[in-house]
Design brief:
The chain has 8 helices and no strands.
């Protein structure tokens, strides 16, 4: 089974993984670095990826080791995203709107997608952080517009 980067080399994948920080935040600010798939990918732990594939598989879908390879939820990473995350409505929306995270979006306050996602976080600090980030992003955008005018 071939596991590797777009150029097909495992070494390129490991180099890319080595460049990533220990904290890899997704568009919704979920910490990808806490995910077993992400950690196993960075460690190149094929046994752990196999365990994860077995854990996530069910009668509807059987996952392989290569399905589990994930370098996190970011605009730069389109090839190696865990299938469950690949179809995430928040991720797809943020990519479509070309924002680095949901807090940068004009529609953050009224967004049902991020509202539902943030409601699943047990830590209210994450919701507070996103709200603060949104306020700062909007203030920065307004300041830039005023400077141009």
């Amino acid at each position: 089974m071939a596991i590797g980067h777009q150029d097909g080399s495992l070494l390129a994948t490991r180099r890319e993984a080595a460049r990533r920080k220990k904290t890899m935040m997704g568009f919704c600010r979920l910490n990808c670095a806490a995910c077993s798939n992400y950690k196993a990918t960075l460690a190149h732990d094929l046994d752990e990826l196999a365990r994860e594939a077995k854990k996530w598989s069910d009668e509807k879908r059987e996952y392989s080791v290569s399905d589990m390879i994930c370098l996190g939820c970011s605009r730069e990473n389109v090839s190696f995203v865990f299938p469950y995350c690949r179809g995430c409505a928040v991720r797809l929306c943020a990519i479509g709107r070309k924002v680095m995270n949901c807090a940068e979006c004009d529609e953050f306050d009224a967004c049902e997608k991020i509202g539902k996602r943030l409601a699943t976080f047990s830590n209210s600090k994450i919701r507070e952080m996103m709200t603060l980030m949104h306020g700062k992003a909007m203030a920065s955008r307004a300041e830039a517009a005023a400077t141009r005018a």
